[in-house]
Amino acid sequence: MMVLKDLRCTACDQLFDDVYVDSNKPSPCPECGGERVTSWHTGQCPGVECSLVFKPLKVGNVTLHSKAQRDAWLKGVNKRMRRHGKGEVGLESDSPAKRKQDYDEIRHDTETRRKAAGISVQQTTEMTTEHKARKREAANAH
Ligand SMILES: [Zn+2]
Predict the structure, then answer these.
(1) What digits encode the pLDDT tens for the residues 21-41?
(2) Residue 78 near residue 33 (C-beta atoms within 8 A)
(3) Tens digit of pLDDT for each residue in 43-75?
(4) How far is the CA of 138 from the centre of ligand 1 (A)?
(5) What are 69-107's pLDDT values in tens digits?
(6) What is each CA distance from 135 to 26, 32, 42, 131, 141, in whole angstroms?
(7) CA 38 to centroid of ligand 1, rounded, Å
(8) Residue percentage of the chain with pLDDT more than 90
(9) Long-range contacts at 125-133 (CB < 8 A, ≥ 24 apart)
(10) Ligand 1 centroid to 15 CA: how many Å?
(11) For residue 64, which of 15, 69, 102, 120 is within the disulfide window of CB 3.0 to 4.6 Å?
(12) Who contacts 15 (Cβ-Cβ below 8 Å, separation ≥6)?
């Protein structure tokens, strides 16, 4: 069981912040059964597994272009976390309550890291807006 972050339905365009899945594939959209892909709309993706569609992610001055780069970056973050006596980012869950608790902690850590890395909520919003604009262009081109 793992969490996929920031999924978007390719059919009805609905956004999903977090989805629990058993495999590393997103489950179909509960609304329309469409295929769901990673959209990065909250910018919170690093920290949990979400490897399907990797879009470049800006973290501070660094842009992560691939899952491998993100993993390497995350490794560095975890190293720092350990130095500060904190646990690693990851999911080891045995019950929904524990899972929720783990997830809340991860979410908090992600927030903290994002602040530390200088990614503001505004930037995240800009990313989303930009994404929407690109999509409009793509739609108009047809
Ligand atoms: Zn859908």
Answers:
(1) 777 778 899 999 999 888 777
(2) no
(3) 655 444 444 555 667 777 777 777 677 777 878
(4) 19
(5) 777 787 887 787 777 776 655 544 456 677 677 778 878
(6) 21, 20, 17, 6, 10
(7) 13
(8) 6
(9) 127/40, 127/41, 127/43, 127/58, 128/41, 128/43, 131/39, 131/40, 131/41
(10) 9
(11) 69
(12) 6, 7, 8, 9, 39, 41
Report the separation in Å between the CA atom of 14 and the middle of ligand 1, taken as the mean of its atom positions: 6
Report yes or no: 93 and 99 within 8 Å, Cβ to Cβ: yes
Q: How many CB atoms within 10 Å of residue 88?
A: 13
Residue listed under structure tokens 């608790």: 101
